[in-house]
């Protein structure tokens, strides 16, 4: 019986894990091992772009690539992981309640992350988000429908809850998107709400002057030091009691690793990510690897850990895929390392800001940085062509991509 590597998830980490495993098996000429990948659809959802218009267009097909390199796609949703029995229960797309058991010799958990939704009154019922394609499409349709409502300050107001990476990128897009729907002369009002005392608290002080300049020139304002206490159909109430009337509230505050990580009997960090060693094997387990947003992985020897971002997920995926196959083959692993860290933050029509290093030293701003961001978003993070040789070459774990 052939051995099986099972990858859970078709995001950046999952896709590259499958391709990297296929690359190593191809290199050693092994055809007696199966690589299978389970996900709801054979698509890469280009999640970093979901703050843009037309989120339904942010899907990249993967079936042709998988067929080209010999990855078996299993369509379904993972319901249960039994590490001891080395099997996964997959709910299939067929009859209601249908499921199948899939055995694995090695597992790569690349199930990504989901938006953190705390128990705030009205949040689930009344707030939009840009976490998944369907969520972003719902927001897109809502914005398009605003012109059918009576003109009012609330109709023309968007509240962005959270002033982190996603919140800033979403806010920077909103004034232009609102005016496209409501008219160029509409008095639009985009307000960011952040519990911390600074915009971009996790981005640090380096790029903050550029970010605040861009947002100010775009007409975005912000309220700091008090988070959202409640959301309703007509706006938000802040923790300090302040009321903001708004027809559109967008929640962007934080992410947590897939709930499937809780089914793995191992240590997790505060975001639910599994502690892994340098090969991305889950610490304390012999058959399970974690990668992407499911992994708490050191990027270097300086105390830095991978962020929950596609920049790290792509390279984490390549490393996990190579190393899980190496583990089965009994060959040496290639330790994961990603010492170079950059950020490229989209600032809407104003441009972008590009930084290097964990201290985020600003290197490019405005239109030049925007051109780089556009290249990243439309070229670098997309899947390779369905060409076997090209796809396997790009899956090299030592080919570090900074995006």
From TrEMBL:
Top EC class of this enzyme:
oxidoreductase
| The keyword Oxidoreductase appears for this protein | yes
Mind telling me which InterPro entries this protein's record contains?
FAD/NAD-bd_sf, FAD/NAD-binding_dom, NDH-2
GO MF, one example? oxidoreductase activity
Question: What are the entry keywords?
Answer: FAD, Flavoprotein, NAD, Oxidoreductase, Signal
Where do the FAD/NAD(P)-binding domain residues begin and end?
Answer: 4-314
Record family assignment: Belongs to the NADH dehydrogenase family.
Name of the protein in its database record: NADH dehydrogenase-like protein
Q: Which species is this record about?
A: Cupriavidus pampae
Provide the taxonomic classification.
Bacteria, Pseudomonadati, Pseudomonadota, Betaproteobacteria, Burkholderiales
């Amino acid at each position: 019986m052939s051995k099986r590597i099972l990858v859970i998830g078709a995001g950046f980490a999952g896709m590259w894990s499958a391709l990297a495993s296929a690359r190593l098996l191809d290199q050693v000429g092994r055809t007696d091992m199966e690589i299978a990948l389970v996900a709801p659809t054979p698509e890469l959802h280009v999640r970093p772009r979901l703050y843009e218009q037309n989120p339904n267009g942010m899907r990249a097909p993967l079936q042709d690539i998988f067929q080209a390199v010999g990855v078996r796609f299993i369509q379904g949703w993972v319901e249960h992981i039994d590490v001891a029995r080395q099997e996964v229960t997959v709910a299939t797309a067929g009859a209601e309640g249908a499921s199948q058991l899939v055995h694995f010799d090695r597992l790569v958990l690349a199930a990504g992350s989901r938006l953190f939704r705390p128990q705030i009154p009205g949040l689930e019922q009344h707030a939009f988000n840009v976490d998944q394609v369907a969520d972003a499409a719902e927001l897109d349709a809502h914005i398009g429908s605003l012109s059918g409502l009576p003109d009012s300050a609330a109709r023309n107001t968007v509240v962005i809850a959270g002033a982190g990476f996603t919140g800033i990128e979403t806010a920077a897009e909103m004034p232009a998107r609102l005016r496209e729907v409501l008219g160029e002369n509409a008095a639009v009002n985009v307000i960011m709400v952040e519990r911390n005392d600074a915009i971009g608290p996790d981005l640090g002080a380096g790029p903050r002057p550029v970010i605040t300049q861009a947002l100010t020139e775009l007409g975005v304002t912000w309220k700091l030091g008090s988070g959202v206490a409640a959301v309703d159909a007509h706006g938000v109430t802040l923790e300090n009691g302040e009321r903001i009337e708004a027809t559109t509230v967008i929640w962007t505050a934080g992410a947590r690793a897939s709930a499937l990580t809780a089914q793995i009997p191992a240590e997790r960090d505060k975001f639910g990510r599994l502690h892994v060693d340098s090969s991305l094997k889950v610490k304390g387990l012999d058959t399970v690897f974690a990668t992407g947003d499911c992994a708490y992985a050191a990027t270097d020897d300086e105390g830095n850990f991978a962020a929950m971002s596609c920049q790290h997920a792509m390279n984490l995926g390549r490393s996990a895929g190579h190393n899980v196959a190496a583990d089965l083959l009994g060959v040496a692993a290639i330790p994961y390392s990603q010492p170079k860290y950059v950020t490229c933050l989209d600032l809407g029509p104003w441009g972008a800001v590009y930084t290097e290093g964990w201290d985020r030293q600003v290197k490019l701003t405005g239109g030049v940085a925007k051109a780089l961001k556009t290249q990243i978003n439309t070229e670098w993070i997309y899947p390779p062509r369905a060409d076997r040789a090209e796809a396997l070459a790009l899956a090299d774990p030592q080919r570090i991509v900074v995006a």
